[in-house]
């Protein structure tokens, strides 16, 4: 590919901490950044979903944070610092001559915009080190990739209960029927083959013997390992109610679930009656998507949607958005049972509330959250599950009691969160946290010793009716919500505080506030709740 060189700026055009997107090549562009007096040039779009990084945040230590989903890159080399991005940016050559800034870039790199991290391929050894990863979701797949990226040259085996390769799971609740799983696959089979990553699909681990370092599979096969990564994630909670076994009562976790729900809606003439049980993120994302094709009713135990995480005032505003789009609500409600149709006793026909009210339903989606999928560890010696089914890990994500041999990541890990002054141990069910903890564990295994701790700021997002709400930090135990902006107009930033400390920030139509807030939390520059109440704009704080 031809090399293109171009003058892109005068040295005084950009101040420290600033970025500039510069047209480059045939319809392309580069992102020029200045950090501590030095210029850097990289690809200009996030490698996750293509967000323009010029609208993101540049920190004083050279981190570029995506404005959409919190992916972070090192401006000095383009490498990934934070999921959900899996590919790095290209870094281009920069030279200053006579106070003019020149960039030299490969045309192919410009057009691609992203590069896969450099990896070490497995070596053929008689007795290679073996890492077994239990779980083929975000955390397990990220750990496998990162093991190669960080130099692990042994054997990697992923055991996945799903019968397809790892997928971009957040798309399941944000779309309507996926079709073939390959359409949302994170990587194709050739990628994993090239890295020497072996999959055992449609398979679960039934028992682990951490002393013998063996895992037993559902087909009775046993796998020996040097290190074990437990990355099984969560599994939908089941409602202990009569009628949950009726046809057209669904949960949403897999591509097959998504396709079955879409088929059920399409099989009902006209606009079917869809009842969603659960008023948090999965349920409400599903409501937003399905409302285009169905009459949707949401039943929730909370007074407003998202109440536990986002608070009553924000939840009320988002409830109004759904009502404007035709969604009906029964909140603060308890379900008694699911009742069959009178004309077909095999299919659900009503959701019956404890109040006696019957809500007609052609299909039901139960979205009452997930629980750690760790049941198999109850039959495994030496593991102590917490009350919610999670595993306690240390700051390196080593399972307590089995340090050095067994790690737990993602949804099932209860870990020390050092951005909380109370030194809380927390568990987070976020996609990017799952990926980041998988990468962290991979770094520790590849190094042969626990060297890395979790320093990422949790970040998640939800998309509904073309609007994206973003959230960073961990707001568990907040005692107040301070809102800047207009909730009624759905343009606001919400600060979740405890005492005078800001724990977390959410925003809608206020980018890049959350990405900026994530860096303020990481760098410990977040202002106090008192300052926020006084109207302080966090975008004015240099990072």
Description:
There is one protein chain. With 543 residues, the protein is an alpha/beta fold. A hairpin with a 4-residue loop joins strand 14 (205-209) and strand 15 (214-217). The chain has ten helices and 36 strands. A six-stranded antiparallel beta sheet has the order 1-10-9-4-3-2. Strands 13-12-11-17-29 form a five-stranded parallel beta sheet. Strands 19-26-20-21-22 form a five-stranded parallel beta sheet, covered by helices on one side.
User: What characterizes the major β-sheet?
Assistant: 6 strands, antiparallel
The CATH homologous superfamily of the largest domain: FAD/NAD(P)-binding domain
Strand order within the widest beta sheet:
1-10-9-4-3-2
Number of helices: 10
Spatial separation of the terminal alpha carbons: 37 Å
Instruction: Please state the overall shape, judged from the principal axes of the Cα atoms.
Output: globular
Mean pLDDT equals 94
* Cα-atom radius of gyration: 24 Å
**Which architecture of the largest domain per CATH?**
3-Layer(bba) Sandwich
Helicity level: 10-25%
Which secondary structure elements does this structure contain, and how are they paired or packed?
Elements: E1 3-10, E2 19-24, E3 28-35, E4 38-42, E5 57-58, E6 63-65, E7 72-74, E8 80-82, E9 91-97, E10 100-106, H1 107-112, E11 130-134, H2 138-149, E12 155-159, H3 189-194, E13 197-200, E14 205-209, E15 214-217, E16 222-224, E17 227-230, E18 234-236, E19 249-251, H4 255-266, E20 273-277, H5 281-290, E21 295-300, H6 307-310, H7 312-324, E22 328-331, E23 335-340, E24 348-353, E25 358-360, E26 363-366, E27 370-372, E28 391-392, E29 406-408, E30 413-416, E31 425-426, H8 431-447, E32 459-464, E33 467-473, E34 480-486, E35 491-498, E36 501-508, H9 513-522, H10 529-533
Parallel strand pairs: 11-12, 11-17, 12-13, 17-29, 19-26, 20-21, 20-26, 21-22, 28-30
Antiparallel strand pairs: 1-10, 2-3, 3-4, 4-9, 5-6, 6-7, 7-8, 9-10, 14-15, 15-16, 18-27, 23-24, 24-25, 30-31, 32-33, 33-36, 34-35, 35-36
Helix pairs in contact: 2-8
